[in-house]
Amino acid sequence: NDRLSGRGRGRRKMFCTFCSVELHQHSFRCWNAGHVPVLHYHKTEKKLRLIREPSVALGMSKGASFTPVSSSAEAGDYLILYSDGLIETRNENGKIRTQDEFNELVTNVCSQHSDADETAREILKQVISADHSPVPEDDLTVIVVKFT
């Protein structure tokens, strides 16, 4: 079958985004291939940092290379990994929310919770309760890692 083999008229370029994180006790490294940024919440500073090197999705370019971003972390810091479905919910006017709106929500939730599971549940709860889409438009995934 030409469509399955990638030959002939049915050939489509396939790609996917990808993010990988290597965790250590007081540091981490992130590789990002076109995915939404990893968020690093500094508990003592109460600030959120977006971690993403400019990159393309896997399968978009044969010559693409992916350089990890390394950073230190302190006890109490969070790393937040999530799918784009958490950002791409709709406001009351039907417009898709922005990364900045999501970052503000995450910052507020992280500043109020000291447990990673609680933090993840609260982020998801607030995103879902503020979504005005008639039906879910994408997956809603969040992973919160707390450094100890």
Cα radius of gyration in angstroms: 18 Å
The major pleated sheet works out as: 4 strands, antiparallel
Roughly what is the average pLDDT, rounded to an integer? Answer: 89
The spatial strand order of the largest sheet comes to 4-3-6-7
Order of H and E elements: HEEEEEEHHE
Total number of beta strands: 7
Question: Number of DSSP helices?
Answer: 3
Query: Helical percent range?
Result: 10-25%
Regions with little confidence, pLDDT below 50 for 5+ residues: 1-10
> How much of the polypeptide forms β-strand, as a percent range?
25-35%
Report how far the terminal alpha carbons are from each other.
53 Å
Present the secondary structure layout.
Layout: H1 2-5, E1 18-23, E2 27-33, E3 38-42, E4 47-51, E5 69-72, E6 78-82, H2 99-112, H3 116-130, E7 142-146
Antiparallel strand pairs: 1-2, 2-5, 3-4, 3-6, 6-7
Helix pairs in contact: 2-3
